[in-house]
Amino acid sequence: MLAILVGLAIGVGLPMQTSINSRLRSSVGSPFLASLASFAVGTLFLAIITLIDIHTLGFSTALFTSQPVWIWLGGFFGVIYLTGNILLFPKLGSVQTVIMPVLGQILAGLLIDNFGWFDSPKSALTSTRILGAILVLAGVIITVAAKGWFDRRHNRMAETAEMVATPAQRGLWFWRILGVVAGMFSATQTAVNGHLGRVLGSTVHAAFISFLVGTLGLIVVVLILRPQLKLSTPTGTRNPWWMWVGGMIGALYVLGNVYLVPIVGTGLAVVIVLVGLMAGSLMIDQFGWFASKKNPIVGTQLMGLLVMIIGVALIRIF
């Protein structure tokens, strides 16, 4: 039960981090600089927690020869997922930018569990678990599609309306497949970090290393792209202090996944977090948290959330 609560909590935190980082992006003028700042804050936060917990940030160099090289790649996979979403939104619109990565996450999560890839706990891919995964995906589609319909009706999201009205965009399937692949990288990151936590004997230490690797990867991206730093105040007021805490929420998300995977497996960890993610998104829409526009919840969205919960229950019980 504790694992489910942790998964839901970190899932709820994800859309909050997205809203916070969106506000940071509008101030610094670049999604890559905003992501780098977020990862850097998260790395510093986890470094402090790691020092408090195990009193060191180092690890045995013997791990480089005794463990597979992929245990160090979780942070890179996270950056690929993050960058993929940045690229997808202007091509697919908000609805498919959510649905395609979710499909990839569920698919990869169940495959990882079934075959025990990345030393994850094995969990056979039964027909009931497949049905549960389909219900989770259906719930996501219902929830997101209801939001898209509401937005179009009130003319609040031109991107969504355009995406639905003109589905025959050139190269659309390329971007859809890219979205699925990005989601698969996200689920793979969850499995890799879970194994790294077992190897190091510390979930906090594993989360720190993952964030550090992601930060280094983003530094390379920023050095290559050289985006311009603007440091503006788009609303005409002072920048809020909370726009810098997105990295801490992201750090807790990675930490929570490192804790979850050895207990429930990658597939179930992914779907539990997805339910929390959708619930958090609905709350942000309802209350307009973190300078987001208010977008009241409709009954169809709650129905979609209920379908997701039933799907998680099927995967968990069977």
Q: Biggest β-sheet: count, sense, barrel? A: none
Give the class from helix and strand content and strand pairing. mainly alpha
Strand content: under 5%
Cα end-to-end separation: 16 Å
User: Taking all residues together, what is the mean pLDDT?
Assistant: 82
Radius of gyration: 19 Å
Set down the secondary structure blueprint.
Layout: H1 2-28, H2 31-54, H3 63-66, H4 74-115, H5 127-153, H6 158-165, H7 172-200, H8 203-225, H9 246-264, H10 266-287, H11 299-317
What does this structure look like?
It contains eleven helices and no strands. It is mostly helical and 318 residues long. α2 (31-54) runs antiparallel to α8, α2 packs across α9 (246-264) and α7 (172-200) packs across α9 (246-264). The longest helix is centred in the first third of the chain and has 42 residues, at 74-115. The two termini are 16 Å apart.
In short:
The protein is mostly helical and 318 residues long. 77% of the residues lie in helices and 0% in strands.
